[in-house]
Design a protein that fits this description.
Mean pLDDT: 86
Strand order of the largest sheet: 1-2
Low-confidence stretches: 1-6
Shape: extended
Number of domains: 1
Distance between the termini: 56 Å
Structural class: mainly alpha
Order of helices and strands: EEHHHHH
Strand content: under 5%
Number of strands: 2
Length: 135
């Protein structure tokens, strides 16, 4: 292999390739539960923030509601799968919460309810995903 001189020691092509494609920082794999907690936490934080400024930035509030609705649709789909490993009762409870979220979001969008219940539900789920941590 041909060698190259790069301001100092002689470096061969394979060393250059290793350096170019080496990870820049170490990464850790997260558990499914940790990923779910991160997503629920992010969606909840955006929803909480958007709800506080709904009067002045309604489009952002609507987007946060839609993101929350989409998250719950995914959760409902996941727990409806017969291969889901959660207990049947817990799966049913999550599915019910997803249905409630869909209905309540419609009420919030029609200005018939506040987003507080949605934020409380997400916060409770987050506590369940992260027992012992503040949500």
């Amino acid at each position: 292999m041909k060698n190259f001189v790069l301001e100092g020691p002689i470096v061969n092509a394979s060393q250059l390739a290793r350096a170019a494609y080496a990870p820049k920082k170490a990464f850790t794999l997260k558990s499914d539960r940790a990923v779910e907690a991160q997503i629920v936490g992010q969606v909840t934080a955006r929803l909480r923030s958007a709800a506080q400024s709904a009067d002045t930035d309604f489009p952002t509030f609507v987007q946060a509601l839609q993101d929350n609705r989409r998250m719950w649709l995914i959760l409902a789909s996941d727990v409806a799968d017969s291969d889901n490993g959660l207990a049947k009762e817990l799966r049913a409870q999550i599915f019910y919460l997803a249905e409630f979220t869909q209905q309540h979001t419609g009420k919030v969008l029609r200005n018939r309810a506040s987003a507080d219940a949605l934020i409380e539900i997400n916060t409770a789920v987050l506590r369940g995903l992260n027992p012992g941590k503040a949500a």
